[in-house]
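INTERNAL AUDIT FORM
Audit reference: QA-55
Scope: verify that the stored structure record matches its stored sequence.
Auditor: D.O.
Record contents follow.
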Amino acid sequence: MVSGMMIQRTDLRGFTLIEILVAIVIISLLLTTVFGVFSSVSGTQQRLEREAGEYHLARVLLDRIGRELRGVYLSDNRQTLFSAANEGGRPTLTFTTTTDTPYGDTRAGLAIVRYRLEGAVSEAETGLTLLRGERQLFSEHEEFAREHRLTDTLRKFELRYYDRGRWDTEWPAEKRALPQLVEVTLTLGGAAAETIFRTAFELPATRRSP
């Protein structure tokens, strides 16, 4: 008796078109999700770096302006002054200070510092330049020969002066007096994501005698 063996055959077949399309859709969804996560992380990193740069710039500028304002000096000597103007949204602040300045002459001890804004002031403007000039109080030249750029990325630069319950944007030199507070506002960034830094500095209670 001859026994026979039954051989079971398994049909081998490839993927159907529908299966391939489903796989492509799933892979595309996964890639889209992964790309979205990486894009979000990259965008967050860029935003944090931009904000860190803005905070650092604002801190440096406000520290410098505040340090020089706290050393403001106004006496009966007409060469000392504290004067602020605002023409077309471009504030200018000029004052005498005892604070050591980068280009100061230690023999003189007093310097006249001027902050002014340069550039077109408009809602769309994002690149205003803040300039700082300096000259010695008893110098023969009255021009601010030492003027340099502090930053050219300002969106706004605003100054206000408080005295006796009132805020003003100008302070005539003819007053021969100091305001109680000087408020400085820096606006950085674009129109869609601007960052505002504002602080007020207290000045000496009275102008000093020579």
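Auditor finding: record pair retrieved intact. The first strand starts at residue 82 and ends at 87.
Action required: none
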